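Task card 7
Instruction: Convert sequence to structure tokens.
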Amino acid sequence: MSEFRLAFPACVIAGKHRLTAEDISLLRKHTFPEGIRTSDDVVAMLALNNSCPEKCPEWNCFFVEQLADFIVNYTYPQGSLDEINVAWLMRMVSTDGVVNSALELELVLHAMEISANVPDELRAFALDQLRLALTEGIGGYKLSRTVDRKGITRQDIDYVTRVLRGTSDAGVIHAQPLTWSVLMQIAEETLPAGNHPRWADILSTLHLVEYAGPPRRSRWLRIVDDTFGSETAVA
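Output:
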């Protein structure tokens, strides 16, 4: 297997302590002139994100929007998420089920927002980041949580609402089995007296949806030009 190397100017930018707006302009012009389109582009973005300790706000937007667009709109099924690209996304942003950073969690959330379909696995994965923050004090959501306490806060309510967006109809939240299971685990780990009042409202409107989903496909993640390889992890 050949060793991956960043091309100019990405290789120079990767050696900097801080990513600036000017760096992003160079990346847009020279490294990703058509956006993120290949597995090498994904690896380059991850390498840049991991190599520079400080990043300007423009990088956060660039990282989230470009990678979410690639995952949802450029890989198959275009415009949506399925179990294949969801599994790939979760592996890319997490270690042992724990999202590595707040920025990578934002990538997950934005991909959910722009997708026509969000599999149960991804909603449950996103909600589990709240459980991990509450019970183990780890993960990307923990890093962004402004109030560090065991109970459900207003910020947590906003997060849960964002994850469950699109599942509500006529005041009822239709939760598929994995999503339901994580919400129940969170409820068991918190005391009602210590939770935001809206948490009880969310639980009271939950409806478990149990149905046989479509048969899982065995395809690997594919993009339009069929060049996407099976390894995109960055050490």
